[in-house]
Amino acid sequence: MHFDSSVEKRQTTAMNKRTIATSLLIFFFTQANAQLGVMRLVGNGTKDYKLGYGAFIKTGIPVSPGNDATVEIGADVFPLDDTYGTIMCPLKAGYRYTLDGSGKGFYVEPQVGFDIYGVTSLQDKNGGDVNLKYHGVIFAAGTGYLFSISDVSFDVNLRYETVIAHGGSNNLISLGISKGFSFGRRDSNY
Fold first, then answer.
1. Which of 21, 98, 126, 183 could form a disulfide with 107 if both were Cys (CB 3.0 to 4.6 A apart)?
2. Which of 146-155, 158-167, 171-180 has maximum average pLDDT?
């Protein structure tokens, strides 16, 4: 029996992608914090959008005392009304630098990434539904304050983010307080 080598290569590539995705998910669920956020789309054509909300999973990989390389994946929803709006699924990498080097207190965090999936659903002039799908490069800048109360981490933050796609952009500002929910053990005595 003879197999087409291009079919074998596609199957091997698909298997490798699944293995990498599974490994990343396991890493995220054992080392990451899940957080919720409230945000607002800003810029031209966004005045009719309601306050948005989102959830993301974020992990920090220590690179020096008090500073982390970060990886974040999330989903942001911006309702226009009960049926229409915009959804974005960003994947970002960044560097969280705490100003005093302790890992707590004030920090700055630039990020860069890619919008894995974006869709804006609206009605056209004839009343028909239109779904505009897009992907794009993401640039974000954030600042905040990290602190703990009884071993529960909190993050008071302000972030500006832009997704550049098809010659335009979606811009958002996020202001809020996030409570970290750890999926795995962060500290160990052994």
1. 98
2. 158-167
Nearest to 100 by CA among 112, 108, 91: 108
**What per-residue confidence (pLDDT) applies to 4?**
57
The two tokens of residue 128 are: 């028909």
Percentage of residues in the chain having pLDDT higher than 90: 35
pLDDT (mean) for 163-188: 69
φ, ψ (nearest 5 deg) of residue 31: -120, -5
Structure tokens at 60: 């920090």
Q: Which residues contact 2 (CB under 8 A, 6 or more apart)?
A: none
45: left (phi > 0), else alpha (psi -120 to 50), else beta?
A: left
In terms of phi and psi (left: phi > 0; alpha: psi -120 to 50; beta: otherwise), the region of 105 is left
Place of tokens 């974005």: 88
The percentage of the chain sitting over the pLDDT mark of 70, rounded to a whole number, equals 80
Residue 2 CB-half CA count within 13 A: 1
